[in-house]
Design a protein that fits this description.
Elements (H helix, E strand, L loop, with lengths): L1 E6 L4 E8 L1 H4 L8 E8 L1 H5 L6 H23 L8 E7 L3 H18 L3 E5 H7 L12 E6 L4 E8 L2 E7 L5 H11 L7 H8 L24 H16 L5 H34 L3 E5 L6 H14 L2 E3 L10 H13 L17
The structure holds 5'-O-[(R)-(carboxyoxy)(hydroxy)phosphoryl]adenosine (KG4) and zinc ion (ZN).
The site of zinc ion has 5 residues, from helix 5.
């Protein structure tokens, strides 16, 4: 089965074509990726310090058709070869989601194909299956993106149990907000991680929220406030020496990254222990973070579990994960696919 996937939930337009043949034959899942196109709107939103929903919707409209053409050319297929169309149903920005769903539904009506609405997080959750070493079910997924921070037990396709989640900011949101405090551009996750490499360990004693809360929930807003307090303290000193300013930012970035990584790693280990699972999957944009990856790898070696990552380019939003999740769902019986042309998005 050949499935077209459309992702437009936030600030990336993603289109991809996935063929389930290798998966059904027990071969590596990534072999089914036949074509893909991705456009990031980050540069467009940067001046505003965050995603502007109306601009996002308009840009998705501009990009989605050319990206479809690109995916088709890459795959060597024609529209007539496609069997179903998957699109991100939510969560995300309502206007942005409407572009993807309207596009998917219209194309499907024209081609007389079924559509399938995919939960954006299911896309992230299953993307590590597209890696070189795919995890075995059941596994624990640490889902850390700009909008979500969750620990899930994944027992199979469609079998997800929420074990814990953030009570306030998402991990990516904490990265982005802290980056802003340190004068970095939006989205600051990758930049703060790079800055932290130049910072010294343990200069600032930042909180590690809910580290010992006993449950698997998270909270990051206090950490961001602690960073803000350090920034205010430093500003009160009116330091003008550039090297000192740079070192301060790097040290603070380092303490911030270390605090957040400590909490994410500790809770992931707790989830593994609690469920008896031996496989951990890291998914979502923050999954691209190298400090987090290094810390998890170290713990995995020491404590006898395996960590699986999606290919780096599939960590942030993309069309492949939606095509893949949609395709796997299409293979099961009660998959929720429909030939109805009504749009049904679920922003929340
Ligand atoms: O999954 P994603 O592309 O979009 C959402 O669904 O939210 O995640 C985007 C988030 C942003 O907050 C971004 O700052 C963060 O992922 N991110 C990172 C890194 N790369 C992206 N955070 C920390 N370190 C990184 N290297
Ligand atoms: Zn995402």
């Amino acid at each position: 089965m050949i499935v077209l996937g459309i992702e437009t939930s936030c600030d990336e337009t993603g289109v991809a074509i996935y063929d389930t043949t290798p998966w059904e034959a027990g071969k590596p899942a990534f072999l089914g990726i036949l074509g893909q196109g991705l456009h990031s709107q980050i540069a467009m939103h940067r001046d505003y310090g965050g995603v502007v929903p109306e601009l996002a919707s308009r840009d998705h409209i501009r990009r989605v058709l050319p990206l479809l053409d690109q995916s088709l050319v890459q795959s060597g297929l024609k529209l007539g070869n496609i069997d179903a169309i998957a699109y991100t149903q939510g969560p995300g920005l309502a206007g942005a989601l409407l572009v993807g769903s309207a596009f998917a539904k219209s194309l499907a009506q024209g081609l007389n194909l079924p559509t399938i609405g995919v939960h954006h997080l299911e896309g992230h959750l299953l993307s590590p299956l597209l890696g070189q070493t795919a995890p075995q079910f059941p596994f624990i997924a640490l889902l850390v993106s700009g909008g979500h921070t969750q620990l899930m037990k994944v027992s199979g396709i469609g079998q997800y149990e929420l074990l814990g989640e953030t009570l306030d900011d998402a991990a990516g949101e904490a990265f982005d907000k802290t980056a802003k405090l340190l004068g970095l551009d939006y989205p600051g996750g990758a930049a703060i991680s790079k800055l932290a490499e130049k910072g010294r360990v343990g200069i600032f004693d930042l909180p590690k929220p809910m580290l010992h809360s006993g449950d698997l929930d998270f909270s990051f807003s206090g950490l961001k406030t602690a960073v803000l307090n350090q920034v205010k303290k430093f500003e009160a000193r009116s330091v003008t020496e550039p090297t000192e300013v740079v070192q301060f930012h790097a040290d603070l970035a380092r303490s911030f990254v270390d605090a957040i990584v400590t909490v994410l790693v500790s809770k992931s280990e707790k989830a593994l222990k609690q469920t008896g699972c031996k496989h951990l999957v890291l998914a979502g944009g923050v999954g691209a973070n190298l400090q987090l990856r290094n810390a998890l790898n170290e713990k995995a070696m020491k404590n006898g579990f395996e960590v699986h990552y999606p290919p780096l380019e599939l960590c942030t939003d993309n069309g492949v994960m939606i095509a893949f999740a949609g395709a796997l769902r299409m293979l099961s019986k009660n998959n929720g696919s429909t030939t109805s042309g009504a749009f049904d998005i679920k922003p929340r």
